[in-house]
Write the structure tokens for this entry.
Amino acid sequence: MRSYRARPDRGERHRQEVAAYSRLRPEVNLLASRRYYAKKRAAKSPKPSFEDRFWARVDKNGESGCWLWTGSVRTFGYGQVERNGQALRAHRVSWELMIGAPVPPLLMHTCDLPRCVNPAHLRPGTQRDNIHDMITKGRGRNQYSR
């Protein structure tokens, strides 16, 4: 009956391979080079702030003073940006960054461009105000009502 030696775990096997390689080529120390490149990767420039990333995606040369969102766009044309793993609408983030006040439950675009993030073109309102605005401007599905 043959006795089998237990197989070393991956970490141990790797250490043995590194030791064997280092004996063959002593000028190359794999573990040291890994540490060197890990430090080099960590020393890269810091990640830009959320505000910097946000404003980099805004084109402030839009028609009629609109600041157009050039980043990701979600359903119905509204811009979207991710913060802390959560997808947020770009116009609401713009309001929060520029006005500094809490974002109201509903923000209405006075320019009727969903990609616009100019806080001067946004105003707080209610659902009733939004529907009234839609009807008076003829943007609803049933444009002939009332």
Remarks:
- The first helix runs from residue 10 to 24.
